[in-house]
Every structure is written in C-alpha cells, then in structure tokens.
Amino acid sequence: MQSLEQTLAAVEGIGRDLNAVTSVMGDRARTLEKKSAERAAAGEEARALEGIPFAVKDVIDVAGFPTTMGSNVSSGPDPSASAPVVSLLERAGALPVVKTNCQEYSYGILGDESAFGRVINPVDPALCTGGSSSGSAALVAAGVVPLALGTDTAGSVRVPAACQGVIGFKPTFGTVSAEGVFPLSPSFDTVGLFARDLPLLTAAFRVISGNGADASPAVSSPAETPRIDLSLLNAADESAAGVRAWASEHLSGSGKATTTSANVDYLTELIERGIDFYDIVRRYEAYVLHKQFLDDQGEQYQPGVWAKILSGQNITEAEYQSNVASLEELRATAESFFDDVDFIITPAMDGEVAAWDELGPESAAKFMRYSLPFNVLGWPAVTLPIGATVGEAQSRMAAGANSPGSAKQAKPESVQIVGPPRSDEKLLEFVSRL
C-alpha cells in the first residue's frame, strides 16, 4: 500500500488531471494518520480500516470543508460537522484525503453537468464517466485511492462504476445514514461505495452500516444452492452477450447455482410500475429541496439540472403523497419475489458504455434501465466489472492495441447482482464467490 504522502501526491497529480478533485484534505488526513501511529505505538490493535485513504463525493459533509455539490449555487455555510458516514470511516482508521467532483446536486446519470466541468474517464477519455458520483469512481479506477463514497438515487454509484471499470455497491435503502448528505430525492437516496477490492468494500460497508468497526466478519454457514434469476439478463438485447457469457461461466458447475428465466413478465411489470412512482416522487422532492434557491440563484444552475428541477414545480402535494403511498405498498409486496429466488443478475446498463459524443436524448434512460428499479424497490445491488479496467486498457495501449478495431474490446463492461432487502452482507459474500 502506498504511503499517505504518495496518495496525496497522486490526488494532486492524477486526480487533478482527471478533473475529479474539488478539495484536498491533506492536513486532516495527516492528523488522523498521526493518531493511528500513536495507537500503534501504544500497542493498540489495528482497526478495521487502519490507514486506508478514501475519497468523499462532494455532496457529503466533511467538517471545515465546503460542500460544493458540483455547483455555483450557494446552499449554505461550510459544514461544522461531518456526515456520520465519514465519521464512522474515520473512527475505523480510514483517512479522508479528497472531496470529488460530481454531477451538479447529483441530478443526472451521465455526469455531463458540473460547475467544475466533466470528470475524465481514466479508462478512455472519450468515454462517458456516468454520474452522478463521477469523480469518486474515477479516483478509484485510476488507483489514486482504494475506496470512495458516493450516493445513488437512480444508479449514481453503480453506473459510474460500470462506466469506469470498478466495483460499485448500493446498500439496502435506509441501511446507511444519509444525515449530512445533501439529498436529491430522500425517498430513494442511498450512500454507496466504490472499490477495486471486494473485501475492502465489504469491510467498509460493515463500518458505515453500523455493524461495528471492530466486529468480526460474518462467518457463512454452508448454504443451500443459491437460486439465481436471469430473466432480465436473458431478455436483454445482443449488447448483453458478454454478461450472459460471464453468467454462464460463473454459474455453471454441479451444485454451484440453479437458475431461472421465468420471471421476465413479472419483473418487467414491477419495473414499469416503479418507474412511474419514481418519476413523480423524485421530481416533487427535488423541486421542494431547491425552490428556496431558485429566485435568487436560478441562473447559477447548470441548464440541464435547472430544467430537471423545474419539471417538478406543477406536481401537487396530493399527487406526491398518493405516489409515496403506492411506492411503499409496492416495496412491501415485492419482497415476496425472494420467496423463490436468492439473487437477480442483470446487465449493469442497457448497451455499451457510450462515448461523450454519442450521447443523445435516450442515453440517460438506457444508463438507468437496470439500476433505477432497485432504488425504487430499495434492494441492495452491486455492479462488478467483467470488461476493461484502467490497467487492462493501459496494457493494451502499451502493446499497440489502440486501433479503432480494438476500441470495442477495451470498453468497460459490468454485471449487476441484486439481493433481497437487508441481505447486504449475504449479497456481498455471494459476489465474492463468483
């Protein structure tokens, strides 16, 4: 593991080059590192995340540093207290080193609008980063930090993770505190994690979910053969061929898993109903949150974000409350799906990771096709890279495989694995066996 000073140098170098950095927290990290050294000198046992540098999406408060939201809009004074999710990581020995550039106010899945400009995808600068947690994904993908915090309302951790070739995890809705995190839509907002190493991500999740920084990892008892639903994967178009091949390879073998593709109609109906509720609830909540800024600072918003916010202004409270009630009913009844299934495997996105110059009116919907439904339902979900990562792309370029014909092979590709609500550690343990 590189030293803290090497990490801070990489933040100032690679991180700045990727336009992923909004604030560097060097002095804070050095102070915490000194306390770690004092603990070690006193013979105290190392904590779960001792000395691990991490990045913080800049909608999450860290005391003494501005929370910019990727915006020129002023939404209040600098925070005097850190978000609990940051404090929990610090108490487990982790070192916050940087706050990261993001889609303005987390409102957009493409990562195309920030007051600081777009983050650069370290796999290939021509490729979209995804959003909204673009900078956190980029710093993990580039190896600047091993761990980062993001937020996920419709895929804003999992989609940039898929676009940049790292692991992205959205926990069960409500499992991780969102206090001290500027919301987009509180009915769906979830704090999530990025990493390249699944055991590290799992350890960090145990910390931020309050399962105890010093708790021993859960010991798995011998499990029955897991039942995997592939309905959405097998119904996807040819762009999912790589994910289907991956699933076939990793789920094959006697007793490893049983699979079904018989639930496509049910899951499709569930998704379509959920998207309708999401559209009303998210637009209403976002408008209510931002209307206090619109008269005096409306011109400071990025144009696309401004338009999204205004799209909620004519939704009535009665319409909103009706959709919230329907959403809660849907979440309650949908859990029974897991009576017969343990996990769901889907593509991470609908289609390939697009280049910036390929984005069009349908791009956002395609990016969110498989992530958004599980924010609506509140179920935990992981995206796992199965295609190009930064290191692989660099190796190909070094070998001269950078011709137009090889570009497709170098694109990131990911699979999404979904579990029942409140089964987060069980889900992560299953993913670790794949």
TrEMBL record:
GO terms for molecular function: asparaginyl-tRNA synthase (glutamine-hydrolyzing) activity; glutaminyl-tRNA synthase (glutamine-hydrolyzing) activity; transferase activity. Gene3D superfamilies: Amidase signature (AS) domain (3.90.1300.10). SUPFAM superfamilies: Amidase signature (AS) enzymes. Residues 4-428 form the Amidase domain. It holds the Pfam family Amidase. Keywords: Ligase. Its EC number is 6.3.5.6, 6.3.5.7. It is an enzyme of class 6 (ligase). Residues 397-421 are annotated as: Disordered. This is Aspartyl-tRNA(Asn)/glutamyl-tRNA(Gln) amidotransferase subunit A. It comes from Brevibacterium aurantiacum. The lineage of its organism: Bacteria, Bacillati, Actinomycetota, Actinomycetes, Micrococcales.
